[in-house]
Amino acid sequence: MENERIYTIPLRDVTNKVPTTKRAPRAIKKIREYLQKHMKSDNVKLDNSINEKVWERSLNKIPARVRVKAVKQDDVVIATLVE
């Protein structure tokens, strides 16, 4: 059974509430938590393209939002970046 969805994950609250030296790692955590909640799975694997997009402008200048395509296969969610 395959379940595929596209999400726009907001990261603005990470920018506002987290010190600049911890923003990118916290954004990756937030993306993972968002997908766990919405796809109802504890096993979430993020593609390298998501990591590169978040870290693109260094540690403290993360994007405001990220569009992600999530595919669920046998209780494993694999997320990739949507261009």
Q: Please, what is the CATH homologous superfamily? A: Ribosomal protein L31
Q: Enumerate how many helices there are, as a single number.
A: 3
Strand content range:
25-35%
Helix % is: 25-40%
Q: Which CATH top level class fits? A: Alpha Beta
- Assembly type of the chains comes to single chain
Radius of gyration: 12 Å
| Average pLDDT number | 95
**Terminal CA distance:** 25 Å
What class would the helix/strand composition place it in? alpha+beta
CATH architecture: Roll
The tally of strands reads 4
Q: Using the coordinates shown, work out and report the CATH topology.
A: Ribosomal Protein L31e, Chain: W
Largest sheet data: 4 strands, mixed
* Strand line-up of the largest beta sheet: 1-3-4-2
Q: Uncertain spans, ≥5 residues at pLDDT below 50?
A: none
Q: N-to-C SSE series?
A: EHHEHEE
Envelope shape:
elongated
Structure, explained:
With 83 residues, this protein is α+β, with helices and mostly antiparallel strands. The protein has a single domain (2-81), classed as Ribosomal Protein L31e, Chain: W. It is built from three helices and four strands; from the N terminus they run βααβαββ. A four-stranded mixed beta sheet has the order 1-3-4-2. The longest helix is centred in the middle third of the chain and has 17 residues, at 23-39.
